């Protein structure tokens, strides 16, 4: 599964802390998206993660869990993402939480199913930006340097440019991707229409569509075919 | 050269900020050690690094530079180590300095010659411990968790247990090494005799001998054959 993510162009991100009806979930899972990522910045628990997984598991679409809370690690996903925030001065978000989680799970950690994500968080007003103290005042060269580190220094499978809640600067995304050959660039933030999906898919390897699922399902679904145009 | 380090059992670490005579340097370089690492926690400059490299280069022993100061990156080494302190809350020492250095060198970075070292610093009174704000109150399970992260999450070639100035707990070292298969465990700190070299070589993959070179050359040289016994 870790290798399969290299072919992902479009993923939907579902938040266990938000409500989604059965029909909407059916349309998301049958949309042709390459995968479902389950994750959120707040309110993620074991119970709401289990519940969402059991519903997503009725479909064949691959399901990955982005671990934001070590208490909410639910078995049964195809893949587990471990987010590492690269642009913060708070070591807690780079190695601290991770070390405590690894210590707790110790021998049980299924490393073959785990994939590190090197995050650069660029919206200071987002929940994740505030929570992690991300240093967001970065230009294209700054982000490109982080991309090089993700690929060469940490050899992470995913470099994740996160504008969470706003549509970002595609020039920054494009220049970061130009640094990468093995590591895949995920872009997330503000993709709420077919047009933005196409723009983002042209700049990034994989686009992540989240909030719009809960705001306007039809527009969310339109991002899937639009991605094929952009890619 | 990055692959060659997998066969290193013993290395000498030379500090560009400390004096070493020609005869002493000759005996160190001809000792049968597997490599010379050039590096130090303070006072490392471009000039003193160039000077030391030019003297070491008269010998065939491989020479690596451990980059502690981006102003002192001298070309001509066989390998460049990039230290990343894992057990600190100060993001500067995990990703911060590194990002600025990569941004500055940008396209010129010879990634094939670079190797990340995941450091766990365990002596709070050492220069490096104070400088980096290392959280040193760790047990064997804590260090083993960092070892797993170095291998699986960051895929670093080297995991470096650093007791800088004191001889460490070999039980901690042994349990950390037990977690590793691809990543190599370097041990440094307080190896000032053949006996300690043998103990450390039994617990670690590679032992690093530093300070004693400047304090008692004969004892430093005795660590080389002793390592073959321990390994």
TrEMBL record, chains A, B:
<feature type="binding site">
    <location>
        <position position="190"/>
    </location>
    <ligand>
        <name>sn-glycerol 1-phosphate</name>
    </ligand>
</feature>
<keyword id="KW-0594">Phospholipid biosynthesis</keyword>
<comment type="subunit">
    <text>Homodimer.</text>
</comment>
<keyword id="KW-0460">Magnesium</keyword>
<dbReference type="InterPro" id="IPR039074">
    <property type="entry name" value="GGGP/HepGP_synthase_I"/>
</dbReference>
<keyword id="KW-0479">Metal-binding</keyword>
<protein>
    <recommendedName>
        <fullName>Heptaprenylglyceryl phosphate synthase</fullName>
        <ecNumber>2.5.1.n9</ecNumber>
    </recommendedName>
</protein>
<comment type="pathway">
    <text>Membrane lipid metabolism; glycerophospholipid metabolism.</text>
</comment>
<comment type="function">
    <text>Prenyltransferase that catalyzes in vivo the transfer of the heptaprenyl moiety of heptaprenyl pyrophosphate (HepPP; 35 carbon atoms) to the C3 hydroxyl of sn-glycerol-1-phosphate (G1P), producing heptaprenylglyceryl phosphate (HepGP). This reaction is an ether-bond-formation step in the biosynthesis of archaea-type G1P-based membrane lipids found in Bacillales.</text>
</comment>
<comment type="similarity">
    <text>Belongs to the GGGP/HepGP synthase family. Group I subfamily.</text>
</comment>
<keyword id="KW-1208">Phospholipid metabolism</keyword>
<dbReference type="GO" id="GO:0016740">
    <property type="term" value="F:transferase activity"/>
</dbReference>
<keyword id="KW-0808">Transferase</keyword>
<keyword id="KW-0444">Lipid biosynthesis</keyword>
<feature type="binding site">
    <location>
        <position position="15"/>
    </location>
    <ligand>
        <name>Mg(2+)</name>
    </ligand>
</feature>
<dbReference type="InterPro" id="IPR008205">
    <property type="entry name" value="GGGP_HepGP_synthase"/>
</dbReference>
<feature type="binding site">
    <location>
        <position position="13"/>
    </location>
    <ligand>
        <name>sn-glycerol 1-phosphate</name>
    </ligand>
</feature>
<feature type="binding site">
    <location>
        <begin position="210"/>
        <end position="211"/>
    </location>
    <ligand>
        <name>sn-glycerol 1-phosphate</name>
    </ligand>
</feature>
<keyword id="KW-0443">Lipid metabolism</keyword>
<dbReference type="Pfam" id="PF01884">
    <property type="entry name" value="PcrB"/>
</dbReference>
<feature type="binding site">
    <location>
        <begin position="160"/>
        <end position="165"/>
    </location>
    <ligand>
        <name>sn-glycerol 1-phosphate</name>
    </ligand>
</feature>
<dbReference type="InterPro" id="IPR038597">
    <property type="entry name" value="GGGP/HepGP_synthase_sf"/>
</dbReference>
<feature type="binding site">
    <location>
        <position position="41"/>
    </location>
    <ligand>
        <name>Mg(2+)</name>
    </ligand>
</feature>
